[in-house]
From TrEMBL, chain A:
<feature type="transmembrane region" description="Helical">
    <location>
        <begin position="97"/>
        <end position="115"/>
    </location>
</feature>
<keyword id="KW-1133">Transmembrane helix</keyword>
<protein>
    <recommendedName>
        <fullName>Quinoprotein glucose dehydrogenase</fullName>
    </recommendedName>
</protein>
<feature type="transmembrane region" description="Helical">
    <location>
        <begin position="45"/>
        <end position="62"/>
    </location>
</feature>
<keyword id="KW-0812">Transmembrane</keyword>
<feature type="transmembrane region" description="Helical">
    <location>
        <begin position="15"/>
        <end position="39"/>
    </location>
</feature>
<keyword id="KW-0472">Membrane</keyword>
<feature type="transmembrane region" description="Helical">
    <location>
        <begin position="69"/>
        <end position="85"/>
    </location>
</feature>
Automatic annotation (TrEMBL), chain B:
<dbReference type="InterPro" id="IPR011047">
    <property type="entry name" value="Quinoprotein_ADH-like_sf"/>
</dbReference>
<keyword id="KW-0560">Oxidoreductase</keyword>
<dbReference type="InterPro" id="IPR002372">
    <property type="entry name" value="PQQ_rpt_dom"/>
</dbReference>
<dbReference type="InterPro" id="IPR017511">
    <property type="entry name" value="PQQ_mDH"/>
</dbReference>
<feature type="region of interest" description="Disordered">
    <location>
        <begin position="25"/>
        <end position="110"/>
    </location>
</feature>
<dbReference type="InterPro" id="IPR018391">
    <property type="entry name" value="PQQ_b-propeller_rpt"/>
</dbReference>
<feature type="compositionally biased region" description="Low complexity">
    <location>
        <begin position="44"/>
        <end position="92"/>
    </location>
</feature>
<dbReference type="Pfam" id="PF01011">
    <property type="entry name" value="PQQ"/>
</dbReference>
<feature type="domain" description="Pyrrolo-quinoline quinone repeat">
    <location>
        <begin position="108"/>
        <end position="709"/>
    </location>
</feature>
Length: 118, 734
């Protein structure tokens, strides 16, 4: 009984973490692929870099590594800097730039209890 | 047939009382002496049957014989002259003095409000202070809703006239209707029986015109008549008080505009705008469905006697002299020429009519166009409405391959002492021209070194004119303007941006890659036109700020077929205009992604706002205020309404009314709201949620001292604002 009580929340945390890891991997792969295409076309490097970052965050989340949090914080901070550099306080223009990444930030932070600290 | 002589009295009294009676002398008050010869000289010799000069002698010979036997008449007439031509020549010789024009105020006697088309009303009962109390006074339903065949093709764009006690309007399928202006009770209706197959791209009837025959006895049938142009290309005239057809007008109240146009293909040639009435002549063009073929119906503009419906003149821009009285027997007006689908403005005083012309039938490829087409496409043309002769023209785009039709009705005004005309364009430029000469009165600029592309570099003009006075056009797009709800759809749009050719304003069409056209064909300013408050010295302009994402499609990849080769218009109206048009006869079809929407989400690929409203200082051209117009409440990804109450700035179609009370009324946006806006600040003072989109121009009028405001909530297929038949009148509580 004791073992089960300890094990159950852990399993739920694992399940959520795995889901978030898959989401980050898929988003990362998509952004990386499209971002590379955009770089080839002579466009912004942001999407490719952010995609690569998100892909690595996904991998780190799979490994239950706390480094995922630090890396994602770096991606998010870079995104905010880039977004304000591009469009300033045009809030409609900020929607695609800030809303999604900030939602993921919240989810990543919520995963902290389930991650291994070194 | 019942006649209501008493009901016509207020209108006639009003006309008699108008100060314009002082302006009946045509040339009076004009600074330019050289204008006078271009007008109809009120000479006694010009009376029909008067001392004969050469053309009159011809007329006298041909007409009686023609009446007895058409063949004989044709033979008797000089070579190439038909009976119709001879009759038209006789018509052209009738003296046509300026007539007093009804005034705006209690009435709304013209589609554009007053004869000048200012959309300004002197009514002032409703003010910014009390507008919040507006209530629905009545709601009238026209009952004209789409049949199965017409489903998804309705864009009624209804704007009534108010004359005396009545509101006069046409429904989407051209049913003429009169209702009581205070109660909404129906007086009469007349259905000309337009078939659904006649719908070109949308079933629209923007409005009707009225004409009071100065020679007719008060109260006789059709002394005051309502005239409309129909989707199946007819002019229809009925009595304003009974709705009975005017038997003396054409064939039992109907004139067939397909006459001398060529093969009758339903939906290819349609009238959606009210005719202009100048000196007793009805002037109409027609919408020629865009992008079908080079060999398309002519863009000829014709003048008809408002009483008899007889052709007075035709203006075929490629054969103005030869076809003035109609083409020779067995021939048709010049095919494929630029047409006038929107509303002209009449200048009763000068006897001119100002025609905002569109582009040639094949919009996006120009190398096959004639010199005449090149000279007149996308121009404002002043015709002497008594003779059909061109006085001047002013071209806004050279060698237009962007479908920058002039869509707005111009407005007559007095500009710094000169009789002038204000012309808004789809590119967003506002021009003020001398009405007599067409010379710009406001500064112009010349754009040079424009890209000429690979498709037809010799045809694309390296220079273009632009207004240096005022423009609604925004700076060119940049990659950072790509948009979406997430980084992924934004990235997709950003990739599309880089895959396309885009070198700013006037990027020429391309085929190897798509090209971005910005502004797109919806404007700038479209058919809703602008309102002019000359008391406050303001132009009120609502406008779109939306690109199109286009590609010329090589002939062997084109799947669509032109309308005359389709099975009874099967494809008509299903796509946005230009979505996949064949442009038969040219080397390319055209694919247009109107509003450049993301294929995956349906939302635009560029950041909002997509629509604005602006007040412009009439003296300086400077912006007094400007703001995004239209909330996000009905828009969202995958077509899901977001219910966001913020003014994101939506596309808008339809114009505004500005009042002496200091309130602007306007629907137009895709949020299905009808609003009152403070003319001084642009702030929304009041709004009402409508059952369908208000892609129509509102009106304001007065009955028994009470001010009403009316808007049509009828929806619009292209604007995706539903469909309806509601005419909603508002007033302050009594």
């Amino acid at each position: 009984m004791t073992a089960h009580e300890i094990h159950h929340p852990r399993r739920r945390g694992n399940w959520a973490l795995t889901t978030l890891a898959i989401v980050c991997l898929l988003l990362g792969i998509t952004l990386l692929a499209g971002g590379v295409w955009l770089i080839v076309l002579g466009g912004s490097w942001y999407y490719g870099i952010a995609g690569l970052g998100l892909l690595l965050v996904g991998v780190l989340l799979f490994r239950r590594s706390f480094a995922a949090v630090w890396l994602y914080l770096a991606v998010w901070a870079g995104t905010v800097l880039w977004a304000f550099w591009e469009v300033g306080t045009d809030w409609w223009a900020q929607m695609p730039r800030l809303v999604g990444p900030t939602l993921i930030l919240i989810l990543v932070l919520l995963c902290i209890p389930a991650l291994r600290r070194r | 047939m019942p006649i209501h002589p008493l009901r016509s009295l207020p209108l006639l009294a009003l006309i008699a009382a108008t100060p314009l009676a002082a302006q009946v002398q045509p040339a009076q008050g004009l600074p330019e002496a050289d204008v006078a010869p271009q007008q109809a000289e009120p000479s006694p010799d010009a009376q029909p049957g008067g001392a004969g000069d050469a053309p009159q002698g011809q007329t006298e010979q041909a007409a009686p014989e023609g009446a007895a036997s058409p063949e004989a008449g044709t033979e008797a007439a000089p070579a190439g002259t038909s009976v119709a031509q001879a009759e038209a020549e006789a018509q052209a010789l009738v003296e046509r003095p300026a007539q007093p024009q009804p005034e705006v105020g209690a009435d709304w006697p013209f589609w554009g409000g007053d004869a000048q088309a200012t959309r300004y009303s002197p009514l002032d009962e409703i003010t910014p202070e009390n507008v919040a109390g507006l209530e629905r006074a009545f709601v009238y339903r026209t009952g004209d809703m789409p049949s199965a065949e017409a489903d998804g093709k309705y864009s009624p764009e209804t704007t009534p006239l108010k004359i005396g006690d009545d509101l006069l309007m046409c429904s989407a399928m051209n049913i003429l209707i009169s209702i009581d202006a205070a109660t909404g009770e129906e007086n009469w209706r007349y259905d000309p029986g337009v078939p659904a197959e006649a719908i070109p791209y949308g079933a629209s009837c923007r409005g009707v015109s009225i004409y009071t025959d100065p020679a007719a006895a008060e109260g006789t049938l059709c002394a005051t008549r309502v005239i409309e142009g129909t989707l199946d290309a007819k002019l229809v005239a009925v009595d304003a008080f009974t709705g009975d057809p005017c038997e003396g007008f054409g064939e039992n109240g109907t004139v067939d505009l397909w006459q001398d146009i060529g093969e009758r293909v339903p939906g290819w040639y349609s009238v959606t705008a009210p005719p202009a009435v100048v000196r007793g002549i009805l002037v109409t063009g027609a919408q020629v469905k865009d992008g079908q073929a080079e060999d398309a119906p002519s863009g000829v503009v014709r003048g008809y006697d408002a009483v008899t419906g007889d052709l007075v003149w035709a203006w075929d821009l490629a054969a103005p002299e030869a076809n003035r009285a109609g083409p020779p027997a067995g021939e048709v007006y010049t095919r494929g020429t630029p047409n006038m689908w929107t509303t002209a403005v009449a200048d009763e005083e000068l006897g001119y009519v100002y025609l905002p012309l569109g582009n040639s039938s094949v919009d996006y490829y120009g190398s096959n166009r004639s010199e005449a087409e090149n000279a007149f496409a996308t121009s404002l043309v002043a015709l002497d409405a008594t003779t059909g002769e061109e006085v001047w023209h002013f071209q806004t785009v050279r060698h237009d391959v962007w479908d920058y039709d002039l869509g707005s009705q111009p407005t007559l005004l007095d500009w710094q002492g000169t009789p002038a005309i204000l012309l808004p364009s789809k590119q967003g430029d506002l021009y003020i021209l001398d009405r007599a000469t067409g010379e710009p009165l406001t500064p112009m600029e010349e754009l040079t070194g424009l890209p000429q592309g690979d498709v037809e570099p010799d045809y694309i003009s390296p220079t273009q004119p632009a207004s240096a006075w005022a423009t609604l056009r925004m700076p060119p797009l940049e990659p950072r303007d790509a948009w979406g709800f997430t980084a992924i759809d934004q990235l997709w749009c950003r990739i599309q941006f880089h895959r396309a050719n885009y070198e700013g304003y006037f990027t020429p069409p391309s085929s190897d890659r798509p090209w971005i056209q910005y502004p797109g064909y919806n404007g700038g300013s479209d058919w809703g036109s602008v309102a002019v408050d000359s008391q406050r010295g303001l132009i009120i302009a609502n406008y779109n700020d939306v690109p199109n994402y286009n590609r010329l499609v090589p002939r062997d990849e084109v799947e669509s077929v032109p309308i005359h080769e389709q099975e009874s218009g099967a494809q008509a109206g299903e796509n946005a205009e230009g979505a996949a048009d064949p442009q038969a006869g040219s080397p390319y079809g055209i694919s247009v992604n109107a509003g450049w929407r993301n294929e995956m989400t349906g939302i635009p690929c560029v950041r909002p706002p997509y629509g604005h409203i602006r007040a412009i200082d009439l003296e300086t051209g400077e912006t007094v205020w400007d703001r995004p117009f239209g909330t996000a409440r009905r828009n969202g990804p995958f077509g899901i309404p977001s219910y966001l109450p913020f003014d994101i700035g939506t596309p808008n179609n339809g114009g505004s009314v500005v009042t002496a009370g200091g309130v602007i009324f306007m629907g137009a946006a895709t949020d299905n709201l009808f609003r009152a806006i403070d003319v001084e600040t642009g702030e929304t003072l009041w709004q009402d949620v409508l059952p369908a989109g208000a892609q129509a121009n509102p009106i304001t009028y007065e009955v028994d001292g009470r001010q009403y405001v009316m808007i049509a909530a009828v929806g619009h297929h292209f604007m995706e604002t539903g469909v309806g038949d509601w005419m909603i009148a508002y007033a302050l509580p009594q």
